[in-house]
Specification:
With 353 residues, the protein is α/β, with parallel strands linked by helices. The protein contains 13 helices and 14 strands. Helix 7 links the parallel strand 8 and strand 9. The protein is globular and about 50 Å long. The chain binds 3-isopropylmalic acid and magnesium ion (MG).
Length: 353
């Protein structure tokens, strides 16, 4: 078995968390005798500094030639005032679009060891296990016209039938392998684009009668996620609503530093932690590497079809948390505060078959 993985650390804490994830992959490749070839490239603000663009054509090509892409995070104060197309975030959107990664899977699963890291009550959290399935290459993030002039700013929220069908199909398929419930989240009481979206989802549902379909408005969904998160299995939603709801879901694990994600299309796949580049703690060996390591677990499961390896990584995370190791973002009284490197070392120690 042999795989090519492109590493794009990006900006801020990206370098630290990708270095951590890389060492995990290296140990896995030893244990399981899998050859992994890495290529690492600049992406985001650091790419802009060197090449004048956050995403070069060479990097796009490199990603297309690899089996999977592992991304850190992009952005930072330094690049906030650049014109839209030069911003690190624009590079990320272009990469998602070029690789046609229309499905974004963001799991929100509670770790019993971290129940106290969340501001929600234990009894509300315990047993929570849902995923936000976010449409990633359409909607208001990409719709035209877009722009601003002296008197107004505007964006366009648009979805085609084909786009809704393909993400809805994914949602029902994934729910079939889980608790068989899809909650479609939109704003159909106000937006025509949502009325259309809801209609197409209902049509696709006809092929998945064994899966329950529920519709919910996004404002209510935001409240329900913190009121009773256990009610959800698969939350199907568009690009903008998914961005917001997946951050809210950070409350489940107590920290955005715990949330992994997978972005997949028909040809390519990319894995990244949900949190951003955290410029305030960059380079200080404080960042939580677990969201990235968990993203690596998703990579082994989804792209490399090795659920067994994915489980080994997830078990190591659980064990390390059970031993009391915590980075600052998930620290609570009585646990052991560790750096990025120390956390990585503990995870490596606990990686056993
Ligand atoms: C995310 C991020 C990105 C998004 C930004 C950095 C462009 O917030 O992946 O959730 O809005 O999609
Ligand atoms: Mg976001």
């Amino acid at each position: 078995m042999s795989f090519n993985v492109t590493l794009l650390p990006g900006d801020g804490i990206g370098a630290e968390i990708i270095a951590s994830a890389k060492s995990i992959i290296e140990k896995i490749s030893d244990i399981f005798n899998i050859k992994i070839n890495f290529t690492q490239e600049l992406f985001g603000g650091c790419s802009y500094d060197k090449y004048g663009t956050p995403l070069t054509d060479e990097v796009i090509q490199l990603c297309k030639n690899s089996d999977a892409v592992l991304l850190g995070a992009v952005g930072g104060y330094k690049w906030d005032t650049l014109e839209h197309s030069k911003k690190p975030e624009a590079g990320l959107l272009k990469l998602r679009s070029e690789l046609e990664l229309f499905t974004n899977i963001r799991p929100a699963k509670v770790y019993d060891e971290l129940l106290d890291a969340s501001s929600l009550k234990n009894e509300i959290l315990r047993g929570t296990d849902f995923i936000v399935l976010r449409e990633l290459t359409g909607g208001i993030y990409f719709g035209r016209p877009r722009g601003f002039d002296d008197v107004s700013g505007y964006n366009t929220m648009i979805y085609t039938k084909a786009e809704v069908e393909q993400i809805a199909r994914k949602a029902f398929t994934i729910a079939r392998g889980r608790k068989k419930k899809v909650t479609n989240v939109d704003k159909a009481n106000v937006l025509e684009v949502s009325q259309f979206w809801r209609k197409i989802v209902a049509e696709v549902h006809k092929d998945f009668q064994d899966v329950e379909l529920q519709n919910m408005y996004v404002d209510n969904a935001a409240m329900q996620i913190v009121r009773d998160p256990k009610q959800f299995d698969v939350i199907l939603t568009g690009n903008l609503f998914g961005d917001i709801l997946s951050d809210i879901s950070g409350i489940i694990t107590g920290s955005l530093g715990m949330l992994p994600s997978a972005s997949v299309g028909d040809k390519y796949s990319l894995y990244e932690p949900i949190h951003g580049s955290a410029p305030d703690i960059a380079g200080q060996n404080k960042a939580n590497p677990l969201a990235t390591i968990s993203s690596v677990a998703m990579m082994f499961d989804i792209t490399f079809d090795r659920k067994d390896i994915s489980d080994v990584i997830e078990n190591s995370i659980k064990e390390t948390l059970a031993e009391g190791y915590r980075t600052a973002d998930i620290f609570s009284e009585g646990s052991k505060l560790v750096s990025t490197n120390e956390m990585t070392k503990q995870i490596l120690n606990n990686l056993t078959i």
